[in-house]
Amino acid sequence: MITEENIQQFSRQCENIFNQIRRDVIGQSDVVEGTVIAMIAGGNVLLEGVPGVGKTRLVRTLGRVFDLPFSRIQFTPDLMPADVTGTNIIVKDDAGNSTFSFQPGPIFSNIILADEINRATPKTQSALLEAMQEHTVTVMGVSRKMCEPFFVLATQNPVEQDGTYPLPEAQMDRFMFKLIVPNPSLEELMSIVDMTQKTMAEVAEPACSGEELLAMRATANQIPVAEDVMRYAMMLCSATHPDSECASEAAKKYVRLGASPRAGQSLISAAKVKALMKGRYNVSYTDINELAFPVLRHRMKMNFEAIAERVTPDKVIAMILAEIGKKTGLERDDALLADVAAAPAEKKKRGFGKK
Q1: Average pLDDT over residues 271-277
Q2: pLDDT digit string (tens) for 188-231?
């Protein structure tokens, strides 16, 4: 049974985590908050942004703050699946007999940085599928368990850039969040340059161990979700399907394929963590609205009409939220929703980790 003390301890732990991250990462408050929420909830994160906006630095910082073994895989077009998962090699014992020995790949760690994941071929990208979902790796018919907690934090460049491959739909679905990393504001850029002129050293210190992270996840899992809130969240996911009974008009017009059941699981798991971060022990409609964008934006496949009219997944999600809100008669904070739906460069700067 969750208690007030559990909630306060959870909130203090989150604040310590955010304070340490701030020592190395300037700005990007929404990205940092979303990444921490996903890690506590046990999900993988895809960070998309142009080169140089701090994606890799953020993941390295998280590795130190959570005091977990960290492994970096640089994805390139010539990277092979065995370079990720590992392979069996022939070794000779003292008697001269040859045997097969498994040589683990860099995937066998707690936090995996899949850097520029969309620069590798689809065959290599798919090597992560089993690890991301089942937390196991199968090589030559033998399955091996990953150490817990296990996360894949991947970075990618926008698909319009040269030398990129679109991620397979099955792999995109295994990311709990897709977070857009915007360019820094003028003030943030000045602070970044000032900090790096003094020292390039990263000074964040451990603030949470793997055992503490798993305990936080167990606490979040106990947060109750009212039936009406659960139904609302599932309606949002179902409304992304143009052929479902809950299909929205926006989905019928612009969406070819909607979100999978994993979207519903991710939405509820993340909402529980967000509620605890705000000091509440129940999930609200606002939690669902705010998290709908990172959970759904990469799970919808736009049709030709959306591409021709330059309608983004975020715009479709905003339209679905507005439509479902009218159907259900729910009162929503339209100003907040507009802020969440805005382009990353236009979003208001909100302090992360605050109640």
Answers
A1: 93
A2: 888 888 877 766 667 788 888 889 999 999 999 988 899 999 99
* Same domain as 167, residue 32: yes
Verify that 300 and 159 share a domain, yes or no: no
pLDDT at position 157 over 50: yes
Q: Same domain, yes or no, for 106 and 201? A: yes
Whether residues 61 and 167 share a domain: the answer is yes
Please give the residue range of the domain that contains residue 312. 223-355
* pTM of this structure: 0.85
CA nearest neighbour of 300 among 263, 339, 267, 265: 263
End-to-end CA distance of the chain: 23
CB atoms inside a 10 Å sphere around CB 71: 15
The percentage of the chain sitting over the pLDDT mark of 90, rounded to a whole number, equals: 39
Looking from the CA of 182 toward its CB, the CA atoms found within 13 Å total: 18
Q: Kind and range of the H or E element at 100?
A: strand 98-104
Cα 260 to Cα 31, 240, 265, 297: the distances in Å are 23, 9, 9, 12
Which of 332, 120, 90 is CA-nearest to residue 232?
A: 332
Domain end residue (candidates: 222, 242, 262): 222
